[in-house]
């Protein structure tokens, strides 16, 4: 997997600046003030830094970056002047780090962070943006990114503060790798194996195979995978870092490793994007990795339903009626509305087995959420106001867009079936909400629940603030924050 950059923390030694190789980064306040390292670099470059600052006077804002290339008087190939207020917010510091990651490419970097109190957040922004998925590029080995050294007045403090951030970045990268991976590589079997490997991090990981799923009665989930040669699986990951016996938070992810639509086949144009239809499962996996790496003091279970939606002589047909683990029968109107069939069984199982204190499912569930919210915000649906509020707050503080959408009986009524207990589509109007109402039916009375439709945010065609084009890892930071703020109270 792609690992976050390795960062070395050390005390500030001004005399090291002249001889540093690669790139040197210094911080400047928007009002033009520089720290001792900045002053040293300015002296070495005979005032070039001051000229950069003067040229931007009045226009410098946090997160901006100016580069001095091949500076005379220094061994480095470039000096990056990073604008960052001394009282910068988390978000500004991360943005500055991301700008630095973009500027440096694959070069060695020495960041003179001085006494900046958000140095750890600069490191997080840098680490998140410093990602490339080159597993299938023949010439990738030459592009190996070099390490980063952070010089700071209190290096131990910065290192300790950055450690959990780097754990989260590794979780985000795990998610991105899974989402970016093509479906011929990331089969259900390969996906389960990568999750099983996390046993080494102290997670309890079980893989439930088809036979077991049939015994449990997961007829809806199995109906989705039955047209594929890849076996359907449910993977259960447990992190027990909290009080013994305390009810866990349950995270449930849609893991459709490829969604052709099944017999209700999707059009050819853009179908290749459906390699990301396991994005919900990818986020659940990334969160479990992050909390295990940072040894979170919380009980969290992550469950993912891994299936492939293919057309074949054995595939589920439109009009088929399947039985869910809960017992409700479902008329399959459209085999392309498969995510909800997977989730309803995994959600029911999660509640049945773990009696969770709360449950959040994540899924690239509907194209309609992209029509509604585009690519900036995920759609959030919930049956519990305080639970939803905590989730939205976590998203807000991590800078991941999220927007609450409604639920309601009128939407649920769109799912009434002539011949079964419900059908799997509610027609075109409010497609994301009827999908959420479908899931709602499988939430036990009294379980605080949120459904997050990440179809628009899981993978992008353009670069974003903290990721190059492709998988974003949206949600790992939000859920990690939700857990840290609400489930780790000692
Ligand atoms: N995986 C898709 C949703 C999707 C669309 C994700 C675009 C990411 C980008 C989902 O399984 C699907 O096909 N949904 C259908 C539902 C419809 C048949 C009721 C859709 O949104 O069209
Ligand atoms: Mn589909
Ligand atoms: Zn799908």
Structural description of this entry:
The chain has 490 residues and is an alpha/beta fold. It has two domains: 148 residues, Leucine Aminopeptidase, subunit E, domain 1 (3-Layer(aba) Sandwich), CATH 3.40.220; 317 residues, Aminopeptidase (3-Layer(aba) Sandwich). The chain contains 15 helices and 19 strands. The protein has an eight-stranded mixed beta sheet with strand order 7-8-10-9-13-17-14-15, with helices on both faces. Strands 1-6-5-2-4-3 form a six-stranded mixed beta sheet, with helices on both faces. Helix 4 links the parallel strand 5 and strand 6. The mean pLDDT is 97. Bound molecules: ligand BES, manganese (II) ion and zinc ion (ZN). The site of zinc ion has 5 residues, from strand 9.
Quick tags:
490 residues, alpha/beta, Leucine Aminopeptidase, subunit E, domain 1, Aminopeptidase, 2 domains, eight-stranded mixed beta sheet, six-stranded mixed beta sheet, 20% strand, binds ligand BES, binds manganese (II) ion, binds zinc ion
Bound molecules: ligand BES, manganese (II) ion, zinc ion
Main CATH class of the largest domain: Alpha Beta
Mean pLDDT score:
97
Percent of residues in helices comes to 25-40%
Tally the helices: 15
Second CATH tier, the architecture of the largest domain: 3-Layer(aba) Sandwich
Strand content: 15-25%
Give the full name of the CATH homologous superfamily of the largest domain: Zn peptidases
Overall, the morphology is elongated
* Class by SSE composition: alpha/beta
Query: How many E-type strands?
Result: 19
CATH topology of the largest domain: Aminopeptidase
Unreliable parts: none
Give the CA-CA distance, first to last residue.
34 Å
Strand order of the largest sheet: 7-8-10-9-13-17-14-15
Biggest β-sheet, characterized? 8 strands, mixed
Radius of gyration: 24 Å
Number of domains: 2
């Amino acid at each position: 997997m792609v690992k976050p950059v390795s960062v070395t923390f050390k005390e500030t030694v001004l005399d090291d600046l002249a001889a540093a190789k690669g790139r040197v980064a210094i911080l400047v306040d928007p009002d033009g003030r520089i720290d001792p390292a900045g002053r040293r670099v300015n002296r070495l470059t005979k005032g070039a830094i001051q000229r950069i600052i003067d040229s931007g006077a009045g226009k410098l804002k946090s997160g901006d970056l100016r580069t001095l290339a091949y500076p005379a008087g220094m061994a480095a190939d470039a000096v990056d002047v990073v604008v960052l207020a001394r009282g910068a917010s988390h978000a500004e510091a991360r943005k500055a780090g991301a700008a630095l990651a973009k500027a440096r490419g694959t070069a060695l970097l020495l960041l003179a962070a001085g006494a900046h109190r958000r140095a750890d957040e600069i490191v997080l922004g840098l680490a998140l943006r410093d990602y490339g998925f080159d597993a299938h590029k023949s010439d990738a080995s030459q592009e190996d990114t070099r390490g980063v050294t952070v010089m700071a007045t209190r290096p131990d403090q910065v290192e300790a503060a950055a450690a959990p951030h780097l754990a989260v970045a590794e979780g985000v990268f795990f998610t991105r790798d899974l989402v970016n991976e093509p479906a011929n590589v990331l089969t259900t079997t390969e996906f389960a194996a990568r999750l099983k490997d996390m046993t080494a991090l102290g997670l309890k990981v079980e893989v439930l195979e088809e036979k077991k799923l049939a015994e449990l009665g997961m007829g809806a989930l199995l109906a989705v995978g039955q047209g594929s040669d890849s076996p359907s699986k449910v993977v259960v990951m447990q992190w027990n870092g909290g009080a013994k016996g305390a009810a866990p938070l349950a995270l449930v992810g849609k893991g459709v490793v490829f969604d052709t639509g099944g017999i209700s086949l999707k059009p050819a144009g853009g179908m290749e994007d459906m390699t990301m239809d396991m994005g919900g499962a990818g986020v659940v996996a990334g969160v479990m990795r992050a909390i295990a790496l940072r040894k979170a003091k919380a009980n969290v279970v992550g469950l993912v339903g891994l299936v492939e939606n293919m057309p074949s002589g054995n595939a589920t047909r439109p009009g088929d009626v399947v039985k869910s683990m809960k017992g409700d029968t479902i008329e399959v109107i459209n085999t392309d509305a498969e995510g909800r069939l997977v989730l309803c069984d995994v959600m029911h199982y999660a509640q049945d087995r773990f009696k969770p204190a709360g449950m959040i499912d994540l899924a690239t569930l509907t194209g309609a959420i992209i029509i509604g919210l585009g690519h900036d915000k995920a759609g959030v649906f919930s049956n519990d106001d305080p639970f939803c509020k905590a989730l939205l707050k976590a998203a807000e503080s991590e800078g991941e867009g999220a927007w609450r959408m409604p639920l309601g009986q009128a939407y649920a009524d769109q799912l009434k079936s002539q011949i079964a207990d419900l059908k799997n589509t509610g027609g075109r109007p409010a497609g994301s909400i009827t999908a959420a109402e479908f899931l709602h039916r499988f939430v036990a009375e009294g379980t605080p629940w949120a459904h997050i439709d990440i179809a628009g945010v899981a993978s992008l065609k353009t670069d974003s603030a903290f990721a190059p084009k492709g998988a974003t890892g949206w949600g790992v930071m939000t859920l990690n924050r939700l857990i840290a703020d609400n489930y780790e109270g000692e």
